[in-house]
């Protein structure tokens, strides 16, 4: 593929939300994970380092009567078995990392960074999720992770990534007047297309992603929203700049 972005070896973070990973019946979409695994392996062949921040652990547990932290414990095993199976198709080694907000403070943050960089150095793809299998106090603190948007931001800053791809169910950020995807814009422009107040403190959603984009701008990190259901969407977005929405620093 042509495009200057391919001539620079990058550190890439891909964030996958539950809305992309699950179907209407809240079952994990294996076809989506297989397609993502294929794209990640293609990026690795090009010399890029790739990390995945994934949701879907709680959804992967079929028993809805269990409390969320127990469902997360059961579902995380099932979710990782799917990732392991499909990355195994391409003979790509992966590693599971589960973090809480405390892991990004003080000495623990240094250790997290050291371990992730070691994985990348050895050609391993880290699969990262929030550790929901914790105490009720920790679960309350984890609410700030906003469906892993903030976790993805923390990972980007920790490893000094070049770009964050956020896979969403929409085609990108939509101009509600024209009903068309906005391919490129600034933060000030973005805020007017998000219906709710992006600083309202609610969890997840588009306002969370716009807020994350603004925070990463200061560090020169690009953020791109892409429709995660589409085949080879990450690879295609490098060649076709009109796919998705990019927030440029």
Tell me what you see in this structure.
By secondary structure, this protein is α/β, with parallel strands linked by helices. The chain has nine helices and ten strands. The protein has helices at residues 18-21, 30-45, 68-89, 106-121, 136-142, 149-159, 187-191, 205-217, 233-239, and strands spanning 11-16, 49-54, 94-99, 125-130, 163-168, 174-175, 180-181, 184-185, 222-227, 245-247. The strands form two sheets. Strands 3-4-2-1-5-9-10-8 form an eight-stranded mixed β-sheet, sandwiched between helices. β6 (174-175) and β7 (180-181) form a beta hairpin. α2 packs across α3 (68-89) and α6 runs parallel beside α8. The two termini are 24 Å apart. Residues 1-6 and 196-203 have low confidence and may be disordered.
Helix content: 40-55%
Helical segment tally?
A: 9
Strand order of the largest sheet: 3-4-2-1-5-9-10-8
Query: SS-based structural class?
Result: alpha/beta
- What's the SSE pattern? EHHEHEHEHHEEEEHHEHE
Features:
single chain, 249 residues, alpha/beta, eight-stranded mixed sheet, two-stranded antiparallel ribbon, 10 strands, 41% helix, 18% strand, disordered N terminus
Summarize the helices and strands and which ones pair or pack.
Elements: E1 11-16, H1 18-21, H2 30-45, E2 49-54, H3 68-89, E3 94-99, H4 106-121, E4 125-130, H5 136-142, H6 149-159, E5 163-168, E6 174-175, E7 180-181, E8 184-185, H7 187-191, H8 205-217, E9 222-227, H9 233-239, E10 245-247
Parallel strand pairs: 1-2, 1-5, 2-4, 3-4, 5-9, 8-10
Antiparallel strand pairs: 6-7, 9-10
Helix pairs in contact: 2-3, 6-8
């Amino acid at each position: 593929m042509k495009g200057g972005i391919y001539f620079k070896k990058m550190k890439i973070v891909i964030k996958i939300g539950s809305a992309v990973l699950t179907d209407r019946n809240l079952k994990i979409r294996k076809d989506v994970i297989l397609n993502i695994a294929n794209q990640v392996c293609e990026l690795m062949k090009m010399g890029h380092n790739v990390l995945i921040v994934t949701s879907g652990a709680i959804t992967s547990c079929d028993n809805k009567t269990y409390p969320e932290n127990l469902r997360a414990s059961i579902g995380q095993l099932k979710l990782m078995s799917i990732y392991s199976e499909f990355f195994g198709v391409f003979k790509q080694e992966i590693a599971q990392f589960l973090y809480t907000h405390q892991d990004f403070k003080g000495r623990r943050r240094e250790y997290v960074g050291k371990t992730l960089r070691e994985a990348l150095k050895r050609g391993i793809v880290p699969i990262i999720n929030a550790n929901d299998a914790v105490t009720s106090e920790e679960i309350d603190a984890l609410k700030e992770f906003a469906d892993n948007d903030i976790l993805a931001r923390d990972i980007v800053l920790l490893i000094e990534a070049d770009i964050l791809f956020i896979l969403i169910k929409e085609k990108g950020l939509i101009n509600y007047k024209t009903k068309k995807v906005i391919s490129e814009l600034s933060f000030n422009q973005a805020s007017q297309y998000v219906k709710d107040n992006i600083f309202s403190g609610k969890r997840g959603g588009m306002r969370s992603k716009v807020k994350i984009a603004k925070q990463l701008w200061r560090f020169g990190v690009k953020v791109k929203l892409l429709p995660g259901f589409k085949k080879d969407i990450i690879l295609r977005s490098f060649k076709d700049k009109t796919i998705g929405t990019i927030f440029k620093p």
